[in-house]
Amino acid sequence: MKYGHFDDDNREYVITNPATPFPWINYLGDKDFFSLISNTAGGYSFYKDAKFRRLNRYRYNNVPMDDGGRYFYINDGDSVWNPGWKPSKTELDHYECRHGMNYTKISGEKNGIKAECLFFVPLGTWAEIQKITLSNTSNEVKKFKFFSYNEWALWNAATDMENFQRNFSTGEVEVEGSVIYHKTEYRERRNHFAYYSVNTEIDGFDTDRESFVGLYNCHANPEVVLSGKPKNTVAHGWSPIASHYKEIELQPGESTDLIFVLGYVENAEDDKWESKGVINKTKAKEVIAKFNTTAKVEAALSELRAYWDDILDRFIIDSGDERLDRQVNIWNQYQCMITFNFSRSASYFESGIGRGMGFRDSNQDLIGFVHQAPERARQRVIDIASTQFPDGGCYHQYQPLTKGGNNEVGGGFNDDPMWLILGVTSYIKESGDFSILDEMVPFDNDESLAQTMFNHLTISFNHVVNNLGPNKLPLIGRADWNDCLNLNCFSMNPNESFQTTENNSEGSKAESLMIAGLFVYYGREYIDLCKVIGKEEEAARAQQEVDNMVEAIKQNGWDGEWFLRAYDFYGNKIGSNENEEGKIFIESNGFCTMAKIGDDEGMCEKALDAVKERLDTKYGIVLNNPAYTTYRIEMGEISTYPPGYKENAGIFCHNNPWIMIGETELGRGDQAYEYYTKIAPAFLEDIQELHKTEPYVYSQMIAGKDAFKPGEAKNSWLTGTAAWNYAAITQHILGIRPALQGMLIDPCIPTKWDGFKVSRKFRGYTLNIEVKNPNHISKGVKQITIDGKPIEGNLIPVLEKGKTYNVNVTL
Ligand code: GLC
Questions:
Q1: Which InterPro entries does the annotation name (predicted)?
Q2: Residue nearest to atom 10 of ligand 1 (CA)
């Protein structure tokens, strides 16, 4: 069964059946103020930080699913319904949801009344706009009652869910005209409030949830909506809400717009009050006035569209396959922006309270984002590096509101530092801005410890060199990329978290082949960088370290048919044919083949063939095989998952691209592309029901071959999968790869392709690239011409800004 379809011209996904297999969501907001919105208008908004500045209450994993959102109720005398179907679930005559680039349109129609709802956050604005167009599509006069509904969260989304002895007494609101202000705790300690307004006079309101919903009713049948009479309640404690009431009369064919604004305000200390106990509303009123007519709202939406036109104009492929085109041109790039904005904090699988920005995650996210807004990437990489420790280790996460490292999670994940080299070099390759290397960047957010960004990279590189184990391979620390491979935890207490429990690395022999491959791959990037900026000596020193690591991997990391995964605390092999379970893993085989370690000796080919044979499935490549069937104290969290799920032999979509890239290094374009299409959402439309999550974005994990339901996806949106797949397809399969000194052209495509075209905006000029594949090969550039003139090799040097160049490539 299909629940919707793509509309590429409008860059929208159109959902035509509201009862999707899981809520299919979208994100609103560009920088500070964000909202999550599902196809039935569920979700919530927050300012910068989904934990500390949550505006509305949302109940994760609730019954029914997806409860809480911006709800509009229509009581037409015969029935009570919502334009987005939920929460009343009254059957509609027509329903449609269009998720676009940072906006969502939901429309519902019933008994001759149509409600079209547009939701978006205007650029640079701390508010969500909700424009509701109500139309009479019948031949008779329509009179009906219209209610809005929003439930406030008491700011901290975590305590909002648990500290009821306090929460039930703190709630405070003010109502002035058609605006309801939520001012809980706005006193000496807090300088912020929220508001919900509508651009018309209202006929009533409610701000107390119990009065509006009824203590034993639910969102599907609120007492006030059923009775058709607001109670004009002013909340004192308990659960404050904001609901407007309006009586509407429409002639046949007539329509009217109501514009709601759900916003957030911060006031300066000396400007907090209008009079004693009355909040200063000036800033809220300014925003409300800015969006109080249809024309103003439409102008703001056009601006948002223009902003996205500009972003998506930087890489446009014309491949002849609409699935690939929509994946590359629209949805994958869009998801990369979302992961850049949110890291792993707020989705329908990430509750917004558990995790802030991840050190390794946010660095990796940059590879799919940096071309969209290099200046934002620059700031991000500086923020991330500022949470590094002086010895090169890092806080694993930081909170976006404070930008300070997250003490609760701590550090010791020994892959973290190397990802900073990826983040910084990706930025330089895209922008050509080497000045970031001279930027003074603090350690542990302490300005007095600041050193240049270049030194941060050296220290990151050295962190691996300084932490080698008995096989001269990198010590794993708390974990490497695989958070669940906890080789130093030895946890027998089910009440402790593997991520934060004591890490017994003292005397540990636990080494990671994943970090080893990572070190070689990004170590070489570091060396290239040193050479380009004239640091020859450092380049030579680093080269020696990388060479040593390559040797150590060949000597101690090769299992005969593939690369080992790790050595455990005692020095026993993990990911070896000698093991009964977990014989082979994806991560080390991905990174070591990307880095072409032992390629001359045939190691890469063997390793990738083994991956194909043992890890590949119909729905993607599983993480390890055979799956672990019992808990192994020396391995940790990985063995707590049932076989086929998550890190225990799930299809972790994040590292499938490492294998794709490894394949392109071998020149096997058919295989690389086959792996790509197996997990790319636009290619999975026909299995929407099984796949379950949004058909327009990647999910972190698809259930593997050992799972109960192979092919079923979970954890959509916030995953490094977005950036890595974007990098794999654009930089390695299509082979258009930013380099320190220009743009490298190195495609590795399916042999049956005749070629493809890409328009790429880069460092201020445009490359119109046409690749031709007359001999139907995968890889190997024969000739490149720029505006008809042949060049040597396949690196397009840095060209003059402001111009457009025609680049013809023959394979
Ligand atoms: C999650 C984490 C990421 C980790 C991965 C594998 O996606 O966000 O940091 O690398 O799981 O464990």
A1: 6-hairpin_glycosidase_sf, 6hp_glycosidase-like_sf, Gal_mutarotase_sf_dom, GH65_N, GH94_catalytic, GH94_Enzymes, GH94N_CBP, Glyco_hydrolase_94_b-supersand
A2: 481
First to last CA, the chain: 41
| Cα distances (angstroms) measured from residue 659 to each of 228, 605, 706 | 60, 11, 20
Question: Is the pLDDT score of 405 beyond 90?
Answer: no
For ligand 1, say whether the CB of 350 is within 6 Å of any of its atoms: no
- Output the CA 484–ligand 1 centroid distance in Å: 8
Long-range Cβ contact pairs of 705-708 (< 8 A, separation 24 or more) = 705/617, 705/622, 705/644, 705/649, 706/622, 706/626, 706/627, 706/643, 706/644, 706/649, 707/642, 707/643, 707/644, 707/645, 707/649, 707/650, 708/644
Contacts of 304 (CB under 8 A, 6+ apart): 30, 101, 102, 103, 120, 122, 123
Which residue owns the Cα nearest ligand 1 atom 7? 719
Place of tokens 């890190």: 647
Compute how many other C-beta atoms are within 10 angstroms of the C-beta atom of residue 61. Answer: 10
641 lines ligand 1 (CB under 6 A): no
Look-up of token digits 């800033």: 283
The whole-number pLDDT of residue 503 equals 87
Query: How far, in Å, CA of 736 to CA of 739, rounded?
Result: 10
User: Is the pLDDT at 552 greater than 90, yes or no?
Assistant: yes
Task: In whole angstroms, give the CA distance from residue 45 to residue 47.
Answer: 7
3-state class (DSSP) for residue 456: helix
> Could you identify the atom of ligand 1 that is nearest to the CA of residue 483?
12
**pLDDT for residue 404 is more than 90:** no
Give the span between the Cα atoms of 584 and 561, in whole angstroms. 10
Burial (CB count <10 Å: 0-12, 13-18, 19+), residue 797: exposed
Contacts of 196 (CB under 8 A, 6+ apart): 148, 150, 179, 180, 182, 242, 244, 260, 261, 262, 263
The CA distance from 311 to 342, in Å, is: 18
pTM above the 0.95 mark? Answer: yes
Rounded to whole angstroms, the Cα distance separating 154 from 113 reads: 35
Instruction: Evaluate: CB of 484 within 6 angstroms of ligand 1.
Output: yes
* Average pLDDT estimate for 733-741: 98
ipTM of the complex in this document: 0.95
The pair of structure tokens assigned to 410 is: 């701590």
Q: What is the DSSP letter of 491?
A: -
Choose which residue among 339, 406, 483, 714 to substitute to test ligand 1 binding: the one with the highest number of ligand atoms within 8 A of its C-beta: 483
What is the Cα–Cα distance from 717 to 711, expressed in whole angstroms? 17
Note whether 593 and 662 are within 8 A (CB).
yes
With helix as H, strand as E and coil as C, how does 516-571 read? HHHHHHHHHHHHHHHHHCCCHHHHHHHHHHHHHHHHHHHHHCECCCCECCEECCCC
Band of pLDDT at residue 410, cut at 50, 70 and 90: confident
* 222: preceding bond cis by omega (within 30 degrees): no
Question: If you compute the radius of gyration of the chain from its CA atoms, what whole number of angstroms results?
Answer: 28
**Burial readout 273-283 (b: 16 or more C-beta within 10 A, e: otherwise):** eeeeeebbbeb
Cβ 483 under 6 angstroms from ligand 1: yes
Q: Dihedral of the CA atoms 311, 314, 318, 321 (nearest 10)?
A: -50
The answer to whether the Cα torsion of 620, 622, 626, 629 is positive or negative is negative
Helix H segments across 560-602?
586-594
Residue written as token pair 């000036």: 282
Cis peptide before 626 (omega within 30 of 0): yes
User: Helix (H, G, I), strand (E, B), or coil: what is residue 301?
Assistant: helix
658 lines ligand 1 (CB under 6 A): no
Query: What is the full DSSP assignment across 111-139?
Result: TTEEEEEEEE--TT-SEEEEEEEEEE-SS
66 touches ligand 1 (CB under 6 Å): no
- Quote the DSSP letter at residue 436: G
Residue 632 Cα, ligand 1 centroid: separation in angstroms?
Answer: 20
**Residues catalogued as catalytic:** 483
Q: Which two tokens stand for residue 22?
A: 């899981």
Which tokens is 135 given? 């139309």
